[in-house]
Design brief:
single chain, 161 residues, 69% helix
Length: 161
């Protein structure tokens, strides 16, 4: 809800509806403190209306722009990182990794399992490498080689144009 001062300012400015305006008029006539506050606000409104607004001079914008032009342009900060810091940090990490790896290698026992008993594959090469399979393999290789040569020749001819 509006305070009485806000309602009085709205009444002075003429921003109230008819019912609100009538209720404020009734408050002004019935309550002495509201009437005194209304008279003070009305005098203040009249004083504001009689004041002249100060305007900047015609050359204000030009003067401001000239002052801005005289100011030195801000320079970007050029920070330079010392290479010794980078080398010391990278050296620390390299030494840490080497230390961890050497610890692991020192405490590891190297023993290889015997894979011969797990991988007993008996391939009959004569059945797999028949002349037909060899011809198919060579034919596919020939086609792939021709495609590759075509790609290279097209690329060279495209660069010359």
């Amino acid at each position: 809800m509006n305070t009485i001062e806000q309602q009085l300012w709205d009444y002075i400015d003429g921003n109230l509806s008819e019912t609100q305006r009538k209720s404020i008029e009734a408050k002004i006539e019935s309550d002495i403190s509201v009437r005194l506050q209304y008279e003070e606000l009305q005098n203040l409104n009249i004083a504001f209306g009689e004041m002249e607004l100060d305007e900047p001079s015609m050359s204000f914008t030009r003067n401001v722009m000239e002052d801005v032009a005289l100011q030195p342009a801000p320079i970007s900060l050029k920070t330079r990182v010392d290479n010794r810091i980078i080398y010391s940090i990278s050296g620390f990490f390299v030494l840490s990794i080497l230390g961890i790896l050497s610890y692991i290698l020192y405490n590891t026992t190297f023993s290889m399992p015997d894979f011969s008993k797990y991988f007993a594959v008996n391939l009959n090469v004569d059945k797999i490498l028949t002349p037909t399979s060899l011809y198919i393999f060579l034919g596919v290789d020939l086609v792939l080689g021709l495609i590759f040569m075509d790609y290279i020749l097209r690329k060279k001819l495209g660069d010359k144009d």
